[in-house]
Amino acid sequence: MTRKKRVLTFLIFIGIFSGAYSIGAEMIVSNEDAMTFLQEFQLSIEGIDAIGIFLHNAGIGLPMFIPGAGMIWGAFAAWSTGFAFSALATTNPILETIPPLTVLFLSPFGVMELAAYSLGMSRSFLLIHTIIKKNPIKPQLRITGIEVGIAAALLLVGGFIEYAMIQQFGSNPNLPNS
Asked: Which are the contacts of 111, defined by CB distance < 8 A and separation ≥ 6?
């Protein structure tokens, strides 16, 4: 595959991830569901550090390299992340004024996660395409390993940046007393 086609495939999956994220962010979440989600979220991130963020994101991102299934998993993960944004916006009116894609494209860790996840999803597509065409997959394995390493590095650095931002700005969404 030429470099130009590889870059185009990667960019297409940035679009797919962004689109699925946007759809999730447009979901209407009731106040009660948003509160439940946020309370569960707070419990899940309590005491998390940079390595914990990395491990969480790697657990989401690495399955995106699975041929075929990784694309579906990636779109679902993107939708879920957008839904989480919608839940946050339901309980925090200031977030309603922020376009959801802003968080994805303008936060350093958001860009790194987007790149890592899109890399995995696009490689998933390329691998399943190779399998369907009955082409030898062995030549793809080396580049897949390199891309997994790149994705892991992006998620590791992104985890440290996200953790630093959480430490600086806080992680507790304003949960109203219910």
From this structure: 104, 105
Q: Is 12 exposed, middle or buried (0-12, 13-18, 19+ CB in 10 A)?
A: middle
Q: Give the CA distances from residue 113 to residues 1, 4, 53, 141, 161, in Å, rounded to whole numbers and listed in that order.
A: 25, 22, 11, 22, 11
Amino acid at 13: F
Quick one: average pLDDT of 64-88? 95
Task: Give the DSSP per-residue string, 3-53.
Answer: HHHHHHHHHHHHHHHHHHHHHHHTS---HHHHHHHHHHHHHHHTT--HHHH
How many contiguous H segments (helices) and E segments (strands) does the chain have?
A: 7, 0
Angle between helix 3-25 and 69-91 (nearest 10):
40
Q: 9-45: per-residue pLDDT in tens?
A: 999 999 999 999 999 999 998 999 989 988 888 888 7
CA distance 164 to 167: 5
pLDDT at 68 over 90: yes
- What pTM did the predictor assign? 0.88
Tokens of 47: 């005491």
